[in-house]
User: Fold this.
Amino acid sequence: MVEIRRPSRKARKFSAPSLFQLPIHPGSAISAGDFSVAQVRQILLAADALEREDPLRRARRLAKRRVALLFYEASTRTRTSFELAAKALGADTTLVSSLSSSIEKGESLRDTGITLKALGAECIILRSPYSGAPYLLAQATGLPVLNAGDGMAEHPSQALLDLRTILQLRGIRAAAVNERCLRGITLTICGDILHSRVARSNALLLTKLGAKVIFCGPEKLLPENATEIGPGISIERDFEVALRRSQMVMMLRIQAERLAGLKIDLDDYRSRYQANAERIAACAPKAPVLHPGPIIRGMEITSEVADGPRSAIAAQVANGVPIRMALLARALKGGRR
Amino acid sequence: MKALLIRGGRVVDPASGLDAKRDVLLREGKVAAVENPGQIRAADAEVCDAKGLVVAPGLVDIHVHLREPGQGYKETIATGTAAAAAGGFTSVCAMPNTVPVNDAPETTRWMQAFERKASAHVFPIAAATRGSMGEALTDYAALKEAGAVAVTDDGKPILDDAMMLEALRSAAVLDLPVIQHAEDTRLTGGCSMNAGALAFRLGLRGMSVEAESNLVERDLELLKQVKNGHLHVAHLSTRKALDAVRAARRAGLHVTCEVTPHHFALTEERVGLYDTNAKMNPPLRAESDRAAMVEGLLDGTVDAVATDHAPHAAHEKEQEFDRAPNGITGLETALGLAISILHIRHKVPLAGVLALLSSRPAQAMGLKRGTLAPGAAGDVVAFDPADKWVFRAAESRSKSKNTPFDGWELQGRVRLTVSEGRVVFRR
Assistant:
């Protein structure tokens, strides 16, 4: 199993600090692997409480706090729900996207972060095409950074909202979340695992709570060593075999923008890995079908399945705002400058 | 220039097998005498007390990037060789990926000019093809005449079989080594670290072991076809490629190779949370490959420890991992790492470590350096082999501070470096 070595305190003590040795604000949410089970439970409890709270009361929680959304990649769900979440808590938000900002003129991530901080941003929500970018931004600014998706690496808020969806489907309360609460649940994540930050974050998070994760996909999109990122993860290349062993299934799109010259035979892909009505009915008729979006209808999933009775896609999207409210509240708790 | 008498040290000269208390006299830029303590009479000489120090031939680094001409904001020949002197190096071979590329005799001469204010002898390595574009050979004879000691396209390896064969043939006639940065770049597009589970976890594209070993194996096949050809494999990093070199050497091919300190000191884990000071090409590899590099250094397969000193400005390295340039500085940490890891941990005799840092690399590049034989260039390093010290990047003489060894405790610290009879560093 792979473990990521963090910069040691010893190294920090000795040196004029390199940027990469600087601390990361504890209110950040960069990797789903970083959360303890207790933290996951707290985030889920906070999401419940904030969702229930009177909107006017809720809007005082982060009243006039400044939250910047820094988006270097296109986004619909994540950006909108982070923005609505921040506004629901009363924060002032500003969106900086790679088009229409100085990023176009060649400003670095570090300088953009420092600029946003100087403008009063107290928390930055970052989406970047580069894996690891949130660490750099957190180290450069000292601010809490919420990772809204970094390259192929992670998408922790998506994993948390997927978890909330799964718990709702199973009728598990947030207060009951522990190391064993998802025991007996196997989730197949099918598709372009290699390029998917959602797959990584979900696998890291769900297995912490006792779930088993099966990665499914062709070799080009799913390397053998993918199982080494954590315990409880296995590979099954036959989608139908994987479905029969699963209580839930999550479909992923092929990330055309990240294929980097990789050639995929799409007809063959569809025939093996598409979630269509016949296949689901035959192999996992009761399994809820999740998809982080955007969905490519007719490719990895058919309309019948995406819009069908077992589809959890809308529930996933709906869980975006409460989870992101919880992450923002956590990031800015007591952090008033 | 005043004569210099280095007195009372333990002289270790791997080239002659000497390892004993000796005094060393340097006169007119050359080694004038190496004698038993107290034997040398030189009233006119400046005396340097080397009691408790190891006195050895000035170190030879056959793989550095001095960034001049063209990228003086990263490093200049003056600052790069100042770092070399601080690290005990008196000879450095400068890679041609400058701006412009060192593919012409004028550039080669410019790099060696007195005006560059070098503190160590600079031996330019010229581009193997024009502009390192891999399309037409440079004029090897003219480049050699201008002072080039080898040819390479370093970061842009020659992939075309016919072109590589032509390079090996043309260089063989002139007794020049062809240095290959062994990376099949057709397999490494967009890659920024070693392939494997860690790269998958970090969401980074990985360079496979085969991208290195395939090209080494291809080059060795080509080398068989060339009479008197000499291939030098730069910065080996994988067991598979090292095994290929070992087998070829046994089969009688003239192939030499080097390993960097970071490839025997670190593994891919040092990447940590996307620390670009652990990003270089070839990338840091898995533990089994690191261990193989140590084996190769121990069993003699590896000819040289070379730093691949590659300075980059802070603003270039303080970027997203995929965007940051490859490379780390290495001149000031090489000796300390070699002593700490090869000598202390792996029990390589000091003479063996010093051979990897002086006589053997000099031999691989055909330099008349790396020995204290009387008449040789007056290049000397004196270091305290027991001194444990902490390397601080901020105190580096290099213009750039991109090192993964900041804050490391190392054993073996340079006290005096003499280049051609001139003291270039003293601590």
Q: What stands out?
A: The mean pLDDT of chain B is 97. The radius of gyration of chain B is 20 Å.
